[in-house]
């Protein structure tokens, strides 16, 4: 029997992880991406390999997914991760009021934490706000977004996946009855148009999933929700520093190479193709970031950027929407065969999102092939370019 | 940033497949404190969807967005428009040199990745292996430790290829390893990685370098490849002498 052919639209974290999983489970895979690898939301993430502690109070489903995936990614893609852990620090009395809930939440989600005295915390990280009242260690990490994605893409490629980069999906091919049988593509590197036929089309376009489904006359309930991040020109801590409080704006500061990166904000928009970096958001990042690490104020801005979350839920406001992901089989939701959409989630849970999506695809084709991505170390990101 | 608005003409190198290259101009209203990549992305978003360019992280950790801006190699996500042109001025944007062009502003950097792979350059290493002298943490002699364990960090070299584009030798010698690659070998040290010696001590290795230091001038990420190549030469001479004595 010849292999089933899956077409994956989008080479963000979701798309590359799905391509890798599909290729491992024996599918012929073609990835179609309109830019380079992770040019969309994924490249521009903050870069926190979540321990889950951020969600341990308000969104335990996310928290549990994060801690499990965090431990898996450290093992399968060490090339892309600074695995130095993180701290949650409480500064005000209001932060301290969150302490009990935080401890309980982390215990419920099995996130290993340890409380430090302010002196111990400052000994580990001398640049923390000296007014801190408490600190907890958590197993956070930092990742390099491009190298994380390239490791998945390289592994997919070594198992036969074909990548068409700088190639837009401009329309879906139908069988005349509205079912999807492939894509129409425009290769912008050579300015050539062509069609690709497949047994299943996977829409992994993040904040753009609605553009693709609209080509099939379907709408999906996602809200593009951008946030701004600012990078500063000095490495001031070794760990990810989080504010001990419910998730808010500018409450995470990460080290990365020789930088610190502060993030993020959250607001909703209509069209994610271009979102400017708003000056007041940049100001907010330095205000909030220097609450955690005062020395940031004396540090030069190195870059400012934004990315758009593909949050699930039609019109609910930014941060309260659950961050877990959804995979839709449009046969079930809209009676359109041949199209699956996956959206939501986080960088930290990319492997799990892929596992669930490919499980769903295997079930559609009555295949019983187990997922092995959790146990399969990824190739070096450089192998995407070098055979 | 300010409320200031500038008008800037972006003159962009274009090339599709076998068609001859050309330059297209786009006049944009910009905030001078925006970064060059923001302007390029806006051209794609609002003026010309056929444009292709490489980018990912937009804050200098990934190395994807290297381009030539007014004839100088720049990482466009951290290059403020204010620093490379004036109000009413222009910005010529071209792909990096010394790599094959895929289209428009995108090049194929396989040459560099393959060579980085050959010297097994580390993507992540201990703080002590690449100290951050005076960079907001303690000096290398007193590298902070994580309860006895080493802290790890992502390497300085982001494999952006700017140094290879700027290098006068890389332009003429196709197989020359190039500054980033030699710097990666230097960082690991020949003493602890003797297998690197023959790789770097050859015709396409470090003796090709003419000490132009263009690499160091354009490196956006604190690698200082020029200095590292000179240091690697000292290491090579040292290792050769050592081996000669062992043989004799
Ligand atoms: C501000 C911010 C900070 C974040 N920080 C973190 C963090 O620290 N840690 C964490 O774990 N998660 C973080 N996230 C979440 C995480 O980044 C996202 O969940 C994830 O990147 C989404 O990936 P994706 O592949 O679904 O989407 P994307 O990365 O956007 O991928 C979609 C791809 O589809 C392509 N595409 C779109 N239309 C077409 C078309 N017509 N044809 C072909 N290709 C097309 C796009 O070019 C794009 O590359 C953050 C998100 C935001 C917004
Ligand atoms: S040495 Fe510097 S310029 Fe060269 S690839 Fe590395 S970061 Fe870029």
Short summary:
Chain A is of the alpha+beta class. Chain A has helices at 13-24, 60-76, 93-97, 99-108, 118-124, 145-158, 209-214, 279-292, 330-334, 350-364; strands at 5-9, 28-32, 48-49, 81-82, 86-90, 114-116, 134-138, 141-143, 162-164, 167-174, 180-187, 192-197, 200-203, 222-232, 240-243, 252-256, 259-263, 301-312, 326-329, 339-343. Chain B has 248 residues and is an alpha+beta fold.
3D structure, described in words:
The complex is a heterodimer of chains A (387) and B (248). Chain A folds into 2 domains: 5-42 and 146-221 and 313-384, FAD/NAD(P)-binding domain (3-Layer(bba) Sandwich); 83-141 and 223-311, D-Amino Acid Oxidase, subunit A, domain 2 (D-Amino Acid Oxidase, Chain A, domain 2), CATH 3.30.9. The model of chain A is unreliable at 315-322 (pLDDT under 50). Chain A is of the alpha+beta class. Chain A starts with a strand and ends in a 23-residue tail after the last helix. In chain A, the strands form 4 sheets. An 8-stranded mixed sheet of chain A has the order 6-7-5-15-16-17-14-18. In chain A, strands 9-2-1-13-20-19 form a 6-stranded mixed sheet. Chain A is elongated, with a radius of gyration of 21 Å. In chain A, helix 1 (13-24) packs parallel to helix 6 (145-158) and helix 1 (13-24) crosses helix 10. Chain A has helices spanning 13-24, 60-76, 93-97, 99-108, 118-124, 145-158, 209-214, 279-292, 330-334, 350-364; strands at 5-9, 28-32, 48-49, 81-82, 86-90, 114-116, 134-138, 141-143, 162-164, 167-174, 180-187, 192-197, 200-203, 222-232, 240-243, 252-256, 259-263, 301-312, 326-329, 339-343. Chain A is built from 10 helices and 20 strands. In chain A, a hairpin with a 2-residue loop joins strand 16 and strand 17. With 248 residues, chain B is of the alpha+beta class. Chain B has 2 domains: 6-107, Beta-grasp domain (Ubiquitin-like (UB roll)), CATH 3.10.20; 110-247, Alpha-helical ferredoxin (Fumarate Reductase Iron-sulfur Protein, Chain B, domain 2, Orthogonal Bundle), CATH 1.10.1060.10. Helix content of chain B is 31%, strand content 19%. In chain B, the strands form 4 sheets. Chain B has a 5-stranded mixed sheet. In chain B, strand 3 (66-69) and strand 4 form a beta hairpin. Chain B is elongated and about 70 Å long. Residues 134-140 of chain B have low confidence and may be disordered. At the A-B interface, strand 4, helix 6 and strand 18 of A face helix 1, helix 3 and strand 11 of B. The structure holds flavin-adenine dinucleotide and iron/sulfur cluster. Iron/sulfur cluster (SF4) is lined by residues 63, 157-163, 179-180, 183, 218-219, 221, 223, 225 of chain B. Chain A: It holds the Pfam family DAO. Chain A: Keywords: FAD, Flavoprotein, Oxidoreductase. Chain A: Residues 6-330 form the FAD dependent oxidoreductase domain. Chain A: This is FAD dependent oxidoreductase domain-containing protein. Chain A: It comes from Bellilinea caldifistulae.
């Amino acid at each position: 029997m010849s292999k089933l052919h899956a077409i994956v639209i989008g080479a963000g974290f979701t798309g590359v992880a799905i391509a890798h999983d599909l290729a491992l489970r024996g599918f012929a895979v073609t990835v179609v991406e309109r830019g380079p690898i992770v040019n969309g939301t994924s490249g521009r993430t903050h870069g926190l390999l979540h321990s889950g502690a951020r969600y341990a109070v308000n969104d335990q489903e996310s928290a549990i997914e994060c801690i499990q995936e965090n431990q898996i990614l450290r093992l399968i893609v060490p090339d892309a991760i600074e695995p130095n852990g993180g701290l949650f620090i409480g500064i005000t009395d209001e932060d301290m009021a969150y302490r009990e809930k935080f401890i309980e939440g982390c215990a419920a989600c099995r996130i290993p934490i340890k409380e430090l005295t302010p002196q111990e915390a400052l000994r580990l990280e001398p640049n923390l706000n000296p007014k801190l009242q408490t600190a907890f260690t958590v197993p956070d990490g930092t990742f390099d977004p491009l190298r994380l994605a390239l490791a998945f893409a390289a592994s997919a490629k070594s198992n036969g996946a074909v990548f068409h980069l700088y190639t837009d999906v401009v329309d879906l091919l139908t069988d005349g009855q509205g079912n999807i049988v492939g894509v129409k593509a425009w290769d912008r590197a050579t300015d050539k148009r062509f069609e690709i036929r497949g047994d299943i089309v996977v829409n992994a376009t993040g904040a753009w999933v609605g553009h693709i489904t609209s080509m099939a006359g379907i709408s999906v309930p996602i809200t593009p929700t951008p946030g701004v991040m600012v990078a500063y020109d000095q490495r001031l801590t070794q760990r990810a520093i989080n504010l001990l409080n419910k998730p808010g704006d500018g409450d995470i500061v990460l080290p990365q190479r020789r930088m610190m990166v502060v993030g993020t904000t959250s607001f909703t928009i209509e069209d994610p193709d271009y979102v400017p970096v708003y000056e007041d958001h940049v100001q907010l990042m330095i205000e909030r970031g220097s609450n955690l690490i005062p020395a940031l104020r004396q540090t030069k801005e190195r870059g400012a950027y934004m990315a758009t979350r593909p949050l699930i839920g039609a019109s609910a406001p930014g941060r309260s929407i659950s961050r877990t992901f959804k995979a839709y089989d449009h046969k079930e939701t809209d009676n359109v065969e041949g199209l699956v959409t996956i959206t939501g989630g986080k960088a930290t849970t990319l492997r799990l999102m892929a596992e669930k999506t490919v499980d769903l695809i295997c079930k559609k084709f009555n295949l019983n092939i187990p997922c092995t991505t959790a146990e399969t170390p990824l190739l070096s990101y450089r192998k995407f370019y070098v055979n | 940033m300010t409320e200031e608005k500038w008008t800037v003409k972006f003159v962009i190198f274009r090339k599709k497949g076998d068609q001859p290259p050309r330059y297209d101009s786009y006049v944009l209203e910009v905030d001078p404190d925006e970064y060059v990549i923001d302007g390029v992305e806006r051209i794609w978003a609002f003026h010309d969807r056929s444009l292709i360019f490489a980018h990912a992280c937009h804050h200098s950790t990934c190395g994807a967005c290297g381009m030539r801006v007014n004839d100088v190699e720049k990482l466009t996500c951290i290059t403020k428009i204010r620093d490379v042109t004036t109000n009413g001025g222009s910005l010529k944007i071209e792909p990096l040199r010394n790599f094959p062009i895929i289209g428009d502003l995108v090049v194929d950097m396989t040459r560099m990745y393959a060579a980085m792979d050959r010297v097994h350059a580390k993507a992540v290493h201990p703080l002590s292996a690449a100290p951050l002298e005076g960079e907001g943490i303690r000096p290398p002699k007193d590298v902070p430790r994580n309860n006895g364990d080493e802290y790890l960090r992502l390497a300085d070299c982001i494999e952006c290829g700017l140094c290879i584009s700027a290098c006068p030798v890389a332009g003429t010698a196709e197989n020359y390893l190039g500054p980033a690659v030699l710097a990666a070998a230097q960082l690991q040290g020949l003493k602890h990685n003797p297998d690197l010696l023959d790789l770097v001590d050859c015709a396409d290795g470090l003796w090709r370098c003419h000490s132009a230091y263009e690499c160091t001038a354009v490196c956006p990420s604190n690698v200082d490849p020029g200095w590292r190549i000179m240091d690697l030469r000292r290491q090579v001479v040292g290792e050769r002498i050592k081996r000669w004595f062992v043989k004799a």
